[in-house]
Structure formats: C-alpha cells, structure tokens
Amino acid sequence: MMYQKHFRQLTKLVWFQVLFITLIMCAGRAVMFADFVDSAQLAGKSADIWRMIITGLRYDLRVSAISLAPLYLIGLVLAAHPTIWRAFRPVAIGYTTVIAFIVTAITIGNYYYYQTYHNHYDLFAFGLFEDDTQAVVMNMWQDYPIIQSVLLTLAVSLVGA
What we know:
Distance between the termini: 26 Å
Order of helices and strands: HHHHH
Largest sheet: none
Helix content: over 70%
Low-confidence stretches: none
Number of strands: 0
Structural class: mainly alpha
Number of helices: 5
C-alpha cells in the first residue's frame, strides 16, 4: 500500500518538475524570439513559426525528462522502502532545485551569449578557459548583469522546490 502512495507522490513531483523546467526553457525561447526576431520578416510564415514552437517544445520536454529520469528511476526503487523514502524526499527536492537552477542559468546565459555573438553556444564559449580567463571574467562582470541573473536564477529554482 505504501508503494502506491510513494509512487503517486514521486510521479506528481517529477511531472510537475518536467512541466516547470519545460516552462523555463519555453519562456527563455519566447523572450529570445521577441527580442531578436524582426517581426516584419514574419509575414506569411505562421506555419513555420508554429513548427518552430512545436519543435522547441518537444526539445524542452526531452531535455527536462532526461534530466529528471535518474530521480524517477531511483525513486521507483526506493518507494518500496518507507524508511529510505523519508530520507529520499528531501534529496529529490534538492535534486530538482539544482536541475532548475542549472536550466535557468543556461537559459539566461544563452540569451546573453546570443545577444553578443548572434549564435547559440558553440566552441567559442569554451575559449574562456583558453584565453586570458581573468580578463574575460572582468569583461563579463562589467558588461552583463551577473548579480541580477544569479538572483533571478535562484528565485526561479526555489519557486519550483
């Protein structure tokens, strides 16, 4: 009887987090679309826009499901053990909070990376460690809202907890 109860709790938690993380990524894509796309070029392209939205949604669902799959699989095994389950629940909340933090940070970082380089993340992003790292970090600190982005990332990740 306890397994079914724990299974339902785990499934609700994972589905909520899948939807929450997908919403974060969709919101980031919508903001980028609104900021970076010239609306004059969209005339007569509604079918392409819908295809883009559906493809993006499918990608976001895939990423969020894959990121939460380990939690779900481990939770399925541990749901049968009531004492372990009590210890697992806080770990599960922590895991989902960390995943939401990472996804939000990557989404915000992607916005600013695209704003600067007009491209998605690529190998150039990893030049941070090959070039003068201190100079690159100082440049980032001066040119981008790092503190506000970190605070927004923390707030969003804690909302889903």
